[in-house]
Fold this sequence. Notes:
Elements: E1 23-24, E2 34-37, E3 42-45, H1 48-64, E4 71-78, E5 84-92, E6 99-105, H2 114-127, E7 131-135, E8 140-144, E9 153-154
Amino acid sequence: MTTNPPLIYTPLSLNLPIVPLRLRPSSRGARRPEVFCPLRRRWTPLTPEEEVRQRFVGWLAGALGYPLSLMANELAITLPSGASRRCDTVVFDHTGRHPLAIVEYKAPSVRLTPAVFAQAAVYNTLLSAPVIIISNGLTHYCAAITAPGQPPRFLNAIPRYSDLTSLNNPPSDENRPSSSNSL
C-alpha cells in the first residue's frame, strides 16, 4: 500500500489575508498542489497567480461583503477582433446580469504597469463595469470608470460590495483620491 506524502503548503508572503484554501496533491503527478476554486467549482494548479486569485476573492467575500454567488472566475469573453480571452474575476450586481467590477490578477513577481491596467480596460470595453481592479497580491489598484473615453479615477481603497454601484458617479472634491494612487 502506497501512501501519498503529506501535503506541505507555505502561503506566499502577500499583502492579503491568509484565507482557508482546499488543497490536494496534484492529480497529474506534478509537484505543485491543486487548489479548489469555489467559483469555478473545480481543482486547478496552485500557481502564484492562482494563490493571489483565491486569496483576493476570499478577502473580497470575507472582509468586503462580496457575495461568492455574484462573482465569476475565468469568465470567457470574445473581443471585437474575434480573439477569445478570460476575465480573471467579474463581480456582478444583485441580479447577476450587470458587471460591477473586473479584477485582473498577476503573480507577485509581475509588476503592475499601465499595460496590465490596459488589459483589464480592453475587457471592460465589452462588460462596461464601473470598477477595474488589478492586483499582484502585493499591490492593488482600483479605479472607477466614470465615462467612456475619460481617464479612470483611482481610488484609495477597494470598495465594499455595497458601495460599488455608487462609484460611477463623478467624485466630489472632498472624495477625490490623491495623485499617488495612479500607475
